[in-house]
Design brief:
The protein is built from six helices and twelve strands. It has 345 residues and is an alpha+beta fold. Strands 7-9-10-12-11 form a five-stranded mixed beta sheet. Strands 3-4-5 form a three-stranded antiparallel beta sheet. It has helices at residues 21-33, 76-140, 149-181, 193-203, 227-244, 299-309, and strands at 2-3, 12-13, 37-38, 50-55, 60-66, 188-191, 212-215, 223-226, 251-258, 261-267, 313-318, 324-331. It folds into three domains: 2-105, GAF domain (Beta-Lactamase, 2-Layer Sandwich); 117-181, Orthogonal Bundle (Helix Hairpins); 188-331, Heat Shock Protein 90.
Length: 345
């Protein structure tokens, strides 16, 4: 049986008949002329099989080839049964084609929606740091600030923070691109958790003025991860926590081991998240209704994608006294290599 969406597309073949170039030509003639041809017909009768168009009330959706075992013409009753059978096949194929077209249309619409959302989010996220850099650099060039060391220091600090914010946006976009394309390559190595957290905190200049409570046991094991990507996970989690935690409340980072699993959590001091939205917050571009804290809506989605690349999980839950806890769960199946002592000769 052969089917295709229109005359320009190649005919797809699914059959038990040996499709030589001649047989294919007969099938294609039937498809283009919407008439039977081949064996036991007046058109191209030297073909080894009879080819019939699969017609619906609106179009042709394919061609079916028939060859009897005894190579004999079908009786009138058999032809009537075959005609009914072919009609039903044509209707089924048309429904499948319509469903496929509807699915493609929905995918295109969703793609356009995401594209628009991405552009809006990026333009909004770019506007603030660029305005800050522009304003601070203009002030630095003003002669009135030449002798004011404190003002100049603050302006330089503002420029640095805005540049870091732009850099995080670029990193998130690159990570999203690599995750979407499947080109994310991990550089596995044994890493120390406090080192990862420390580097993440250093990259978040605007969070350094916040109260960060570290509850990390001293006997935490090494983890086998990509150091840079793991840092990016915690940069995004901490950035999210800073956005939603009031300035007078702390942000907590905890870790504990249970059997062969390690749990690292970032707990913010925000209002919490409606329970029905605890999974949706990991969707691309999703932001909580009424959110005024900025952001592209990519951070948490990228965090989960990077976690899954490490065969880890990232979940969110509300705390009893307020706030949201994001927990990264890592497997500890692998054992770190033994530490080798360096002997002095």
């Amino acid at each position: 049986m052969a089917h295709g969406d229109d005359l320009q597309q190649p005919i797809e073949l699914a059959n038990t008949l040996p499709m030589t170039e001649k047989e294919y030509a007969v099938a294609y003639w039937v498809y283009t002329h919407k008439k039977p041809a081949g064996r036991f017909t007046d058109t191209l009768s030297l073909a080894s099989a009879q080819y019939l168009p699969l017609l619906t009330p609106t179009r042709i959706v394919g061609v079916i080839g028939i060859r009897t075992r005894q190579d004999e013409r079908l009786s009138l009753d058999q032809e009537g049964l075959l005609e009914t059978f072919i009609s039903q096949i044509a209707l089924v194929i048309e429904r499948e084609l319509l469903d496929e077209a509807a699915e493609q249309s929905a995918m295109l619409h969703e793609s356009e929606r995401l594209y628009t959302t991405l552009l809006n989010s990026i333009s909004h996220e770019l506007r603030t740091p660029i305005a800050t850099i522009k304003g601070a650099s203009t002030s630095l060039m003003n002669h009135l600030t030449n002798d004011n060391v404190l003002a100049r220091t603050q302006l330089i600090h503002d420029i640095e923070e805005s540049a870091d914010r732009l850099n995080r946006l670029v990193e998130n976009l690159l990570d999203m691109s690599r995750l979407e394309s499947g080109r994310l390559s991990l550089k596995w190595e044994w890493c120390d958790i406090p080192d990862i957290i420390g580097v993440a905190l250093k990259q978040l200049g605007e969070c350094q003025s916040r109260e960060i409570i570290l509850d990390l046991p001293t006997d935490l094991p090494l983890i086998y991860v990509d150091f840079g990507l793991m840092v990016q996970i915690f940069v995004n989690l901490l950035d999210n926590a800073c956005r939603y935690t009031p300035s007078d409340k702390p942000i907590r980072i905890t870790a504990h081991q249970h059997q062969k699993q390690l749990y690292i959590s970032v707990i913010d001091g925000g209002k919490g998240i409606p329970s029905e939205l605890l999974e949706r917050i990991f969707d691309k571009f999703y932001r909580l209704p009424g959110t005024v804290t900025g952001g592209t809506g990519l951070g948490l989605s990228i965090c989960r994608g990077l976690a899954e690349a490490h065969k880890a999980t990232l979940t969110a839950e509300n705390m009893p006294n307020g706030g949201t806890k994001f927990t990264l769960s890592l497997s500890l199946e692998q054992t770190p290599p033994p530490v080798q002592e360096v002997k002095n000769e």
